[in-house]
């Protein structure tokens, strides 16, 4: 199957080779404001740039997890890539943990905590190239990581496999080279087999759709990219006791805030995560959907994308981590919802007043 998409900076040519979904179910397209890579696959199942039902997100994570062989030896460590695949990775690990008790979830971050860093690595093509991975904070989790026989690396898409290989190389240099099996798990794999090949003979790739792409640039001038390549904590410093993935977790409880929220059947609710803080808000959104509300989930992001194609609305505002960088929210029309719940990991006073004025949300501070 061939797909050809004309964007402002050139033409993207896709060849679809295999998959569990048709392409239109999984993604659309947009123009990045990024000279290093001019196009973006805009996921329709991740709840990042397009609001989606929590049930749609859950089906995607469960379906991806089902591609991972059930008989792989443990312990098993699942690593989700910041920021887009944090909820995806957590959902994959949660799905795997339904049938085994030897899994640990970790996510990479651009907000390092005041605790030991395991590795630093780069995502060269990204708008934000620097990432770190922390050591788990509990001794039992550290031991699980050191003895893990299976490593699952999760991202929304693989274009060349270079980011996964950069992370694996960093782990090996840190002394973690004991993995017998390595899985590169993505919603879409455009690497033409390179994602697994870069990880060595121990590796295999699983995805919901696989193929390869070819980009033909035109003579349009490169876009202006906002300065978002920042690694740090800003004004806010996380408390380890409130960790949901940066320091390693195996269980994913729904926030106690859920018990204080009531819904009416059919009520239209939008739950918004902020930046890397997406997994606990997603679990809240899923809970409210199960109570009978008509829920959509999405999140703010530091990813700069041009208007057009799959990106029809855009808000620009200051990040709520106190880093002084622009953040964005896409494809949200406030009038479509009876209630908007804006979820924050840092203190709510760090939320941009312009965003609050535009959305008129209920601000939920998860860790007051």
- CATH class of the domain at 250-365, named Alpha Beta
Low-confidence stretches: none
Number of strands: 17
Q: Overall mean pLDDT score?
A: 92
Radius of gyration: 19 Å
Q: What is the SS-derived class?
A: alpha/beta
Q: Identify the strand order in the major beta sheet.
A: 1-2-11-10-9-5-6
Helical content stands at: 10-25%
Query: What composes the largest sheet?
Result: 7 strands, mixed
Distance between the termini: 51 Å
Order of helices and strands: EEHEEHEHEEEHEHEHEEHEEEEHE
As a percent range, the share of strand residues is: 25-35%
Q: Which shape, going by the Cα principal axes?
A: globular
CATH topology of the domain at 250-365: Rossmann fold
Count up the helices.
8
CATH architecture tag of the domain at 250-365 = 3-Layer(aba) Sandwich
Summarize the structure in words.
The chain has 368 residues and is α/β, with parallel strands linked by helices. The protein has a domain at 250-365: Rossmann fold (3-Layer(aba) Sandwich), CATH 3.40.50. The protein has eight helices and 17 strands. The protein has helices at residues 23-26, 54-66, 86-97, 139-147, 162-173, 194-198, 279-290, 353-359, and strands spanning 2-7, 10-19, 27-31, 39-43, 76-80, 103-107, 117-122, 130-134, 150-158, 181-189, 203-217, 268-273, 294-299, 314-318, 326-330, 339-344, 362-365. The chain has a seven-stranded mixed beta sheet with strand order 1-2-11-10-9-5-6, sandwiched between helices. It has a four-stranded parallel beta sheet with strand order 13-12-16-17, with helices on one face. The protein has a two-stranded antiparallel sheet with strand order 3-4. A hairpin with a 7-residue loop joins strand 14 (314-318) and strand 15. Helix 2 packs across helix 3. It is globular and about 50 Å long. The mean pLDDT is 92. GO terms for molecular function: glycosyltransferase activity. This is Phosphoribosyltransferase domain-containing protein.
């Amino acid at each position: 199957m061939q797909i050809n998409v004309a964007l402002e900076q050139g033409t993207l040519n896709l060849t679809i080779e295999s998959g569990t979904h048709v392409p239109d179910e999984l993604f659309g397209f947009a123009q990045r404001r990024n000279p290093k890579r001019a196009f973006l696959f805009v996921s329709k199942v991740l709840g990042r740039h397009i609001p989606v039902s929590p049930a749609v997100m859950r089906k995607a994570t469960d379906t991806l997890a089902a591609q991972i062989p059930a008989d792989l030896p443990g312990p098993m460590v699942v690593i989700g890539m910041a920021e887009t695949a944090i909820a995806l990775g957590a959902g994959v690990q949660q799905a795997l943990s339904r049938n085994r008790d030897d899994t640990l979830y970790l996510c990479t971050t651009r907000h390092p905590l005041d605790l030991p860093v395991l590795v630093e690595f780069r995502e060269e093509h990204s708008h934000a190239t620097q990432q770190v991975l922390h050591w788990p904070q509990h001794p039992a989790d550290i031991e699980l990581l050191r003895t893990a026989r299976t490593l699952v690396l999760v991202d929304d898409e693989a274009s060349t496999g270079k980011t996964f290989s950069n992370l694996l190389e960093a782990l090996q240099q840190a002394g973690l080279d004991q993995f017998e099996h390595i899985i590169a798990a993505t919603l879409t794999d455009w690497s033409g087999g390179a994602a697994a090949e870069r990880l060595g003979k121990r590796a295999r790739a699983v995805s919901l759709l696989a193929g390869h792409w070819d980009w033909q640039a035109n003579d349009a001038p490169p876009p202006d990219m906002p300065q978002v390549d920042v690694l740090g904590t800003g004004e806010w410093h996380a408390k380890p006791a409130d960790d949901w993935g940066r320091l390693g977790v195996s269980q994913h409880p729904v926030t106690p805030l859920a018990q204080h929220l009531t819904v009416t059947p059919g009520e239209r609710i939008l739950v918004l995560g902020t930046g890397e803080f997406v997994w606990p808000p997603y679990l809240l959104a899923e809970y409210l959907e199960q109570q009978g509300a008509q829920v959509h989930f999405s999140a703010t992001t530091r990813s700069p994308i041009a208007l057009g194609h799959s990106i029809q609305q855009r808000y620009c505002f200051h990040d709520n981590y106190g880093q002084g960088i622009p953040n964005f929210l896409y494809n949200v029309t406030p009038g479509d919802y009876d209630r908007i719940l804006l979820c924050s990991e840092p203190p709510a006073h760090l939320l941009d007043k312009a965003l609050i004025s535009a959305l008129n949300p209920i601000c939920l501070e998860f860790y007051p």
